[in-house]
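*** Fold description ***
***
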Amino acid sequence: MPDTILVLDTETTGLQGAKFKDDPFADPFFKKSRHIDYDSLDWSKYGDIVVDVGICEVSLSKRTVKEVYSAIVGYDVSTWTEDMRKSWIFENTDLTVEDVAAGKPFSEVRKEVLEIVDGRWLTTYNVQYDLDKFLYRFPWNLEGRFMECRDIMFAARDECKLKSEYYGVKEYRYPKLDYAYKTILEGQDPAGINGVQDHRALSDARVASHLMIKLNDEGKYDPLDMSGRHGSLH
């Protein structure tokens, strides 16, 4: 049973996800990737992209949360579409397109993230978003590099018991992170957000981490329970 688990969060330019499951530059015969200069790519051609990454390390037995990584992912934004520039993340948080233009180059961020997560236990609040739509797809392609734990959102759904908005559907719907945090922790604020989710990656990873600890304390989070994981979306 894993005790130390990484909790990762991403902020992105959209909800559709990255465009390619596999490396579009791979040699079609040998199935091997050619060298890619990620930092010179025209990112308007690859679907939605990750612009902010945060990772916390949780010890369930010690009930501790340690912030281990945070980076604004840098890209050449000169080729971005207007839709990318007006993404929800830029319109509703303190993150700006200019921050991304000045951020750490994608190639460096990917290398650093891989060094942290390689061979570790890891989860997110909504694995089908952060992992299936982004980190398991190009240009991250991190599938198989770490072991998944139960989606924190799945455990929160079973605890919050929000009725589905769709008539005839018996399953509960998934709670948003801020609602689950407020409800399950009963107003306590170990993540220090003062009632406001700022929708930045490290902060959201910290919130999800404390939520996971609370659920685990109450016997409602089993890291190895993968029920409800309906396969990947890629």
